[in-house]
Design brief:
- The complex is a heterodimer of chains A (about 800) and B (about 170).
- Chain A contains 25 helices and 30 strands.
- Chain A has about 800 residues and is of the alpha/beta class.
- A seven-stranded mixed sheet of chain A has the order 6-5-18-17-16-7-8.
- In chain A, strand 3 and strand 4 form a beta hairpin.
- In chain A, helix 1 packs across helix 17, helix 2 packs parallel to helix 18 and helix 5 runs parallel beside helix 6.
- The longest helix of chain A is centred in the middle third of the chain and has 21 residues.
- Chain A is globular.
- Chain B has about 170 residues and is mainly beta.
- Chain B is built from one helix and ten strands; from the N terminus they run H-E-E-E-E-E-E-E-E-E-E.
- In chain B, the strands form three sheets. A four-stranded antiparallel sheet of chain B has the order 5-6-7-8. In chain B, strands 1-10-9 form a three-stranded antiparallel sheet, with no helix packed on it.
- Chain B is globular.
- The N and C termini of chain B lie far apart (about 35 Å).
- The relative contact order of chain B is 0.19.
- Classes of the chains: A alpha/beta (about 800), B mainly beta (about 170).
- The interface between A and B is large, with 54 and 57 residues.
Chain lengths: ~800, ~170
């Protein structure tokens, strides 16, 4: 049977319950919620004066009521050491979501750790060290002393190249301005750690270098631009599933008001289905291109639009670079940047050529060009919002492809204006404030490959799980297990030794090729199985946390509950590591170096915020953000007046862009086939495209969802969407387990019959604990170390009939149908 | 009498298939359930045992609009024509569900070809043949299903619901 909670009533929120501002900490949209808490021995009543809603709860409430919450929105948690009831429900007054909750955000409460209801018992509660052949709980001081002493042995003033760091750079979750500053100050100010990477890619780099180099920051619009536009142009994006309430609360009303929708995606998604339902098929154009040919499509569109003269000449003259080449192509710039005419010449591609490469008709390309750029009958600019995401970010030729897309928006003047924008839709929220990373250089070191090749001695990991989310994951795991096991064995061999003897043993193993692994996370992750020290962190809501969403809307999530056990905010963990490093270095007489680790006497996350973000944004404080509530303020903040922070609705509204001369650049990147090493031969060798990405229900790498009964019941294994005729040829029934394999590695998935999938083109759910898609992704990256997850080819074989955990599932179409 | 019932059924099917938002009051034409009342002092909610229909009057894949546990809680009885988990009746194929979407409370439409209940509000899809499992959607629970009993006469009674119904903090108001 489908999972059922058998909860048929919930405690009522009393009228005097505490109410906290909460921004959902899952996806980038950042929906507003409120957390209500009240003592465990009290409850509200159905009479209007007895509950928080002021309504008669003895009556059935209607659709979209504010006065209801699902069992997933309820829990019992600790607050200031006391058990309290907790309800976290969507905020109707938040302009982002207007009371909508997604299948992810509406489970925030259920995904809190509770000793009373038993949820999320996987959360880490205390530091652990590898001792006596397993992980033993211990104190912070003991664990951090070990971290500091081992780390101090491999770093020195002006040489920190043997310390490798994997650290999140996002907002929401356990990220945010406080925590990126804490870790950033430690590794980029106290130290200069070059060998580092970000949570979702194997280097420390931008995922959208080209648009930034062109002077167009990737989050430049406001969500209200969807309501002001003529055309919504979605590329490699599936917002109904992955930016749900941006789609439901902003795109859908726009579509109902007549906006057309153009979608570039090799796969038919539920987003496209919903657009067709709302707009009618005539107003939705799905360009189902061959995987990885986006650049050819954009260059063809750009050429055609320019040839038709559907460009904003005044905008190009006033706001973009005049001349020829502003930046030559070289090892740091995978294509030249410069003027409109330079790009026109470099990107030139005919309709016939583009149609052939992309596998779509010339007529559809022309239609797309008209929807994007053909001026309205009165000659006015056609408004078009362009939104892209991992389909091209983690796809072929990242730099040139994103640059080519931004070219189109720039040519039409659809940046910085109402109903325009060319934006990354985003995964997590953002919340980045760190000292400059310029010393890392470009291209940044390919950290995963360095580890595979035996480099690095100590590895600090902050909420990264390479085992589930990196590319070339089979090889990475094989080497990582071996190298960290060397250290574990050395530690095991010295059980009972003094601290000094233990450190010597660890360093000995490191010098023999081992790797000492320190894992800071909220759960014991897959890569955490290799750790020698595990440090427990808290999440949003267990600390005060600031982040911004996909339209740069900054909010403060107020702490509404205690973190599990002795877990702590990442910024304060970073501060403690710095303090312990300073202490150990002073003990060793390395006073000059030790002084670099001063300046971390933060008592709270607010102290970290004031030490970091506030110094560059002096108008912004916790109190002011709290007063701005769930609607917050759109960054950059430009002032404070009449008790309110003053923000910026959209960037570049004055026609000045983010380059030294304020002029935007066009990108002159010609089509060059599958760019990353090994992709073309893989395509030739293997039968199935293993396209991959996220689903509606699973957040990120399932770190909490894997312990959520509702989610793990639906997808005990990652699904592999596959055409039913392909299934017949492979002898597969729905739910059967398959092995996906190529010469990079292998993984497993659950066959999900999908009639809309093209033959030989599958889609596998990414980030699953029970089948890592990254196992079959090769190590190929672009010139700036951007991974190419999407263009992966492999063969498929059956492993077994559908396992017992799959037998009760539905394998019906995910598409809503009206007949 | 039978033909009269048929006419009513057609109207009900239109409701269940249509995308339009209907009010909960539309359920008033159905068989009236017993009065429901929460009982103080009980650990479990006391659900009414309500006759929602009879085995003889159900036809395969023709939904019967019902309401349970009271007139303000619309639902559906379905004879699926294949044995399913939670199914009752001689063929083990009769199931009952709430037809209020547990995401935002929109009325669900019955999709006869897919045998799913679909939400016009935010495109959620629930599988009637798999215990109301959300095939895809925004709800954080699978569709509330009725606990059914069939007596010797073939009368079908609902005697409980396995998830919280949208729009009420107690299934029995």
């Amino acid at each position: 049977m489908a999972f059922k909670r058998h909860v048929d009533r919930l405690p009522i929120i009393p009228a005097d319950a505490k109410k906290h501002n909460v921004t959902c900490h899952y996806c980038i949209v950042g929906c507003g919620y409120h957390a209500y808490t009240w003592p465990v021995n009290r409850q509200g009543g159905t009479a209007p004066d007895k509950n928080a809603f002021g309504v008669d709860l003895s009556k059935q409430q209607g659709p979209e009521t504010d006065a209801w919450y699902a069992p997933s929105m309820y829990n019992v948690v600790k607050q200031d050491g006391q058990d309290v009831h907790l309800v976290i429900k969507p905020d109707k007054a938040c302009v982002v979501n207007s009371g909508l909750g997604s299948v992810r955000g509406a489970r925030i409460a259920e995904n809190r750790r509770s000793d009373v209801t038993g949820t999320q018992q996987q959360r880490l509660t205390q530091p652990m060290v590898w001792r006596y052949g397993t992980w033993q709980p211990t104190s912070w001081d003991d664990a951090l002393d070990l971290v500091a002493r081992v780390t101090a042995r491999v770093i020195d003033k002006d040489n920190e190249n043997d310390l490798f760091v994997s650290m999140f750079d996002h907002g929401g979750s356990a990220g945010g301005y406080e925590n990126t500053w804490g870790t950033g100050k430690l590794y980029f100010q106290s130290m200069k750690v070059r060998n580092c990477r970000i949570h979702n890619r194997p280097a420390y780099n931008s995922e959208v270098h080209s648009t930034r180099d062109m002077g167009v920051g990737e989050l430049n619009y406001a969500y209200e631009d969807y309501g002001l536009t003529d055309t919504i142009f979605l590329v490699g994006a599936n917002p109904l599933e992955t930016q749900t309430n941006l789609f439901l609360n902003h795109m859908i009303p726009a579509i109902r008001n007549g906006a057309r929708v153009l979608v570039v995606d090799p796969r038919r998604t539920v987003t496209i289905n919903a657009c067709e339902i709302e707009a009618g098929k005539d107003n939705v154009l799905h360009l189902a291109i061959q995987s990885g040919t986006d650049l050819a499509l954009f260059n063809t569109l750009f050429t055609y639009i320019a040839d038709q003269g559907w460009v904003d000449k005044n905008f190009i003259a006033k706001s973009t670079f005049q001349g020829d080449v502003a930046q030559r192509q070289d090892s740091k710039f995978p294509s030249a940047l410069g003027s409109f005419e330079m790009a026109r010449s470099a990107c030139k591609m005919s309709l016939a050529e583009g149609a052939k490469i992309c596998g779509v008709s010339e007529g559809d390309i022309v239609k797309a060009a008209e929807w994007i750029a053909k001026p309205n009958e009165d000659g006015a600019r056609r408004k078009c919002v362009t939104a892209y995401e991992k389909g091209i970010i983690w796809g072929n030729d990242n730099y040139r492809t994103i640059g080519a897309l931004v070219n189109i928006a720039l040519a039409n003047g659809n940046v910085g204006r109402e109903g325009g924008g060319v934006c990354r839709l985003g995964g997590h929220q953002e919340g980045y404030f760190r000292p400059s990373d310029a010393f890392i250089g470009r291209p940044a070191p390919y950290l995963d490959q360095l580890i595979i090749k035996g480099h690095g001695k100590v590895h600090h990991i902050w909420a990264n799980d390479h085992f589930k989310t990196t590319l070339n994951a089979v090889e990475f795991k094989r080497v990582y297990n071996r190298r960290t096991n060397l250290v574990k064995e050395a530690m095991d061999a010295r059980a009972g030794a003094t601290r000094e003897e233990l450190i010597d043993a660890i360093v000995g193993a490191i010098e023999a090729g081992g790797l000492f692994s320190v894992n800071v996370d909220i759960i014991h992750s897959q890569i955490g199985q290799c750790a020698h020290v595990i440090l427990p962190a808290v999440e949003s809501g267990e600390m005060n946390l600031t982040s911004m969403n996909g339209e740069r809307r900054m909010r403060l999530v107020e702490k509404y509950m205690d973190g599990p056990g002795s877990s702590a905010p990442d910024c304060l963990i970073a501060a403690r590591i710095a303090q312990h490093l300073g202490r150990v270095l002073r003990e060793q007489g390395r006073d000059d170096y030790a002084a670099q680790f001063d300046g971390y006497d933060w008592r709270t996350e607010e102290d970290a915020f004031m030490d970091g973000y506030h110094t560059a944004n002096p108008d912004v404080t916790y109190d002011r953000l709290r007063a701005m509530g769930n609607n917050g303020v759109q960054e950059p903040v430009v002032g404070y007046k009449d008790g309110k922070l003053i923000g910026t609705k959209r960037l570049y509204a004055n026609g000045e862009f983010g380059t030294s001369d304020k002029k935007a650049r066009f990108c002159g990147g010609a089509w060059r086939g599958l760019q990353a090493p090994g992709k073309a031969s893989e395509k030739a060798k293997y039968k199935f495209l293993i396209n991959n990405g996220r689903s509606n229900i699973n957040w990120q790498n399932w770190f909490l969802d894997k312990d959520n009964d509702f989610v793990s019941d639906r997808y005990p294994y990652p699904f592999l969407e596959i055409n039913p005729e392909d299934m017949t040829e492979l002898g597969l029934n729905p739910g059967d387990l398959v092995e996906v394999y190529n010469d990079v590695g292998a993984t497993q998935a659950m066959a999900y019959p999908t009639p809309t999938a093209r033959r030989n083109e599958t889609f596998m759910l990414f980030g699953a604990p029970t089948g890592t898609q990254g196992n079959v992704i090769n190590a190929g990256v672009n010139e700036l170390i951007l991974p190419n997850y999407k263009q992966t080819w492999a063969n498929i074989r059956k492993i077994s009939d559908a396992p017992a955990t799959v037998a009760h599932l539905s394998f019906k179409s995910k598409e809503y149908a009206t007949d | 009498m039978k033909s009269c019932d048929k006419l009513v059924e057609i109207g009900r099917r239109q409701f269940l298939r249509g995308g339009a938002i209907a009010t909960a009051g539309a359920a008033a034409a159905t068989i009236a359930p017993k009065a429901a009342k929460a009982q103080a002092g009980s650990a479990l909610l006391e659900y009414p045992s309500s006759r929602l229909g009879s085995v003889q009057n159900l036809e395969v894949n023709e939904p019967l609009q019902v309401a349970y546990p009271d007139a303000d809680a619309p639902g559906v009885l379905l004879k699926l024509g294949k044995r399913v988990e939670g199914g009752v009746g001689p063929d083990g194929d009769i199931v009952g569900f709430s037809t209020t979407c547990p995401h935002k409370g929109f009325p669900l439409s019955y999709n006869a070809s897919g045998r799913t209940l679909n939400c016009p509000g935010h495109y959620s899809v629930f599988d009637c043949e798999a215990g109301g499992l959300q095939v895809w959607g925004q709800a954080t629970q699978n569709l509330p299903q009725y606990i059914l009993r069939v007596d010797d006469n073939g009368d079908i009674f609902a005697e409980g619901v396995d998830e919280l119904l949208y729009g009420r903090l107690s299934n029995v108001l």
